[in-house]
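Reposting from the mailing list since nobody answered there.

I have sequence plus structure tokens for a pair of proteins and want to know whether others read the tokens the same way I do. The first protein:
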Amino acid sequence: MNLDPNIFRAYDIRGIMGESLDGKVAEAVGKGFGTWLRRSTQSPQPLIIVGRDNRFGSDRLSTKLTEGLVSTGCNVIDIGLAVTPLVHFATIKYNTDAGIIVTASHNPKEFNGFRFDLRNAVPFYGEQLLEIKSLAEKEDFEQGIGRVTYKEDVFREYISDVKSRIKISRPLNIVIDCGNGASSKFAVEMFTDLGLKVSDLYCNLDGDFPFHQPDPEMRINMENLRQKVMEEKADAGFAFDTDADRFGICDEKGNTYENDKTMVILARDVLANHPGSEVLCDIKSSYVLLDEVKKGGGLPLMIKTGHPYFRSYMAKHDDCFLGGELSSHTFIKDDYYGYDDGLYAAARICQILSASQKSLSQHFAGIPHTAHTEEVKLPCPDEIKLSVVNSVGNFFFKQGLSVSDVDGYRVTISPNSWFLIRSSNTSPYISLRFEAENREKLLALVYLVKEQLADWESLDVSVLGEQKVLEKAHNVS
């Protein structure tokens, strides 16, 4: 069977429904993964958790995926409508060999796909995904007769587990925006059970995502939450992406914060009990996070962007209890499992807030403000994006500047002025981020990079025009 190679991304399988992804592809993926699992575990009947989000087509893909798995002899526990943290939890709770969720996370509604766990919610990614592709194209499948069982009470067990860890010390009013994603079924119930007063926004299931894309990393998707928090005079607001592995945060004044600032609040909490421990962040994170972790007695460590790298590092290092990406994947291990769970991370913020007499904005008040952009995505053909990134990185390296090549190139112009250029692992674009002390220095930094990119005729550098950059920037008024 021929499969579109573009659906095999760095961390998952993802494509457009009805084009690169359909029931036949899902069945082939199930057969390929089931075969890989049987051969790697030497088990005749591996046990796999399967869940799905609420996108149109997820039911169909889940059914065909399961058919493929059981045809190879795998046994499946179908937990139905789910979010990614619930699959992580069930994989650990029931000691299964693997877990799969049918989801395209925060991507637009026309996308769908599969994200995989191995035992203990260890990520299955990268070259491993290409092994599924190879098995499917060769139709080199194991044969067997597996069975399917259905379990509908996993979420109640998950809530009980979270309630045993999270303690709310005083009443809080919060607003939750699920963007009509799968988190709609779970978030309100969970936070209500924790003893919070919850006002909901777009928390009914609708795979059309009619009000906004469930992607809290994008500031525009937080606008309705901001307004609702201020209308309700709530203590905080939280937004979740479709599968709830990421979250966004809004304080009582309607201020929103990128995850590298939210990580400061979490780091202070974790480091209070684990002084001197490592705190992971990705290469896109602000220097402010690095400085604040050091002030708190921690050891900041920048690693490659991508949830598998965070999960894997934390699993191998006993002195690392917290990690977070700018994209809002957040990993907490001091009193939790160390996988990315936006619901638990938001609950942890509520615990911190309720244990103090401060407002949420006061918790953020001491964190320095910088002029910075969100992630800027420059469309770039897959076949040249690495060459473009390398040419820019090498140019600035030859200028004698400090250049980190952990993931792409992070170029430091001065202690408080830097930019990142890296090739997207999942899509045809180059990722850029800029940070400086003020608006003027930020725009000068952007101009330096734009000047180098202008030599590539196939690139439309208009996204780095002043007006468009300012639309993506914070603290530049």
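The second protein, same order (residues first, tokens after):
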Amino acid sequence: MATFNDFNLSKDGYVAFDALSLKSLITTRLNTNNIFTDQNFEGSNLSSLIDIIAYAYHVLIFYLNRSAAESTFTTAELYENINKIVKILNYNPIGNQTSILSFLANAQASLPASTYTIPRYSYFTVNGVSYTFNQDVTFSKNTDTTESLINLQESNLLYQGTYGEYPTYIAIGEPYEIVTMTLVDNNNENIIIDHFNMDVYVKDNTILTPIWEKWLPTQSLFLERSNSKVYEVRLNENGRYEFRFGNNVTGKQLNRGDEIAIYYLKSDGTRGEIGPGLLNSNKLFFYNTQRFNQIQTDTTPSNITLITADQASQIGFTNIDSSTPFVERESVDSIKINSLNTFRSQYRLITAEDFTNYVLKNYSNIISSTVAVNNWDYISGHLKYYFDLGVAKPNYESRILFNQVKFADSSILIMYMFMLYRN
């Protein structure tokens, strides 16, 4: 039952107020006192003052209701607010994911049989957009004749975009130091960065001969050892990436004066999507900056020889499939679902649901649907389907899928997974 105060208003009556109802209330109160009369005449000074007060309170109440609704997980609808809320759960929203392209590679007879390595960040230019190798790619040519490079084309993909070099950051050496990467275009809008293609290199200037080392991303610093050279990366509420380092208890802490170099894949969004056959006969270019050349020297193992431009020109690259679609950053609804699933799993991969959530969260740009089942579901569902079709002995069938019936019933396994590239 509503409780009324001296103003004859219920305790929660403010939520029903708008400018007109508040103006009516003020006018009624003034008429009750029989002191002022100008409030009843539109255009009078007192009436104008009442309008200002009523509409000012209308705006304040709007912000009160809006901020109250956006402060809880279930009712928040703005990206900025839900991003802040899920930070409590240690959930990192997924950002934009650039297009990906599969390819075929064919080596000419003039390329000698040997083992070669294509350096990271090497790229092709296709119709004004670039497709890039996101890591060092090692492959072998086994003959001195024309050869299809199976191990190169089946184990690697090209990612749409070109790598950018963020200015060197000098560490101040505090625990859990955060480096925020701010990148905007001419319109002061955040540029499109692929969420899964950012690399961090650190030069420890406290040692006698400092060299660049590549540090690795981690889901959570609290899962790491004190000397682990790792960092957390988070897309914050402003659409900018934050790189968080450890404190020498959970993850290695940056030293004062350490240099941090960040490389990121800048995407062209939907404009970077291409069709089949456009990669044909395009030249491979090598990424080249003064700082990166030093990093490449420090981080490339001595037993690896990088391919030369002349050798790379003797390899033909083609694509028979279109690139995958560009994927926008996670929506508010997606964050609400994935954050709860991730928190529930606690970064483990044990149950079928854990596997499904992990795949859909991290590979949504190339996978359309995923199904993970445990042993008993596999027997009662998948194998039963074959028996119902009349296949009495699936393990004797020649097709490879029918032979996968030996398994340990004490563990949860992914028995089958449908991975469909989006058209």
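Reply #1 (J.P.):
I read it the same way you do. Confidence is low (pLDDT under 50) at residues 400-423.
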